[in-house]
Amino acid sequence: MADWNNQSPIYLQLAEHLSQALLDGQPQEGQAMPSVRLLAAEYGLNPLTVNRALQAMVEGGLLESRRGLGMFVLPQASERLRAADRARFLSQEWPLLRAKLQRLGISASDLDWHAKESA
């Protein structure tokens, strides 16, 4: 079950969570999304909230609704998500991170891109 916050509506938070799962290949492009009922049970949410999240993903060009069959991941969905996340990172997060690195005196040579995360 996900942790919900008060920063944005829960349906948008769920749509973001499901979008991140798409980036991880779950489910893969062309495959069906889990049913509204299954997602509602998994996340402890009202089916209407889940349906609204899936509809937001349809409007975002990530899913398509197939009458009587459910929601399916569109081709290129992960590519669109990655491009949008990259653009958002570069325009919003990177400037803040770069400023913090500069304040702390951390240079590119101090960063190890291949370091494994500690568990």
Automatic annotation (TrEMBL):
GO terms for molecular function: DNA binding; DNA-binding transcription factor activity. The keyword Transcription applies. This is GntR family transcriptional regulator. SUPFAM superfamilies: Winged helix' DNA-binding domain. It comes from Deefgea piscis. Gene3D superfamilies: 6.10.250.1220, Winged helix-like DNA-binding domain superfamily/Winged helix DNA-binding domain (1.10.10.10). Keywords: DNA-binding, Transcription, Transcription regulation. It comes from the Bacteria. It holds the Pfam family GntR. Residues 8-76 form the HTH gntR-type domain.
